[in-house]
Amino acid sequence: MYQKITIIGNLGRDPEMRYLPSGQAVTNISVATNRKYNDSNGQKVDETTWFRVSVWGAQAESVNQYLKQGSKVLVEGRLRPDPETGGPNIWTRNDGTPGSNFEITAQNVLFLSSRSEDQAFQASEPGGTSDPVDEDDIPF
To answer: 25 versus 85: which is more confidently predicted?
Structure first.
């Protein structure tokens, strides 16, 4: 049996890297994928799905070094279901609304935006900082 997922999206925040006691690097990134469409009533719908991605080993170090909030990436990997439910992780936000996210263990991460594109994105934001999403909207 085989399982593989491929997503393309933007980082919602800067990568967070740590080292396990064994010395192996692991970097966690949050990736938002966006879909825009018209519903059956003709209303425009913007849909964002969040993925938590764990990247391991030397690739984790590269992701941490070269990517930042707003970077566009392609991630290939496998879904990691919630051990209790077998589905996505589900929780309640501070405002009482339900939230969920999907977890992916990355096998491959491709950088789709160049450093100059990331810098141009940063420079285009007011005050020179990137804040494409509200911190409260990131589900982890």
So the answer is: 25
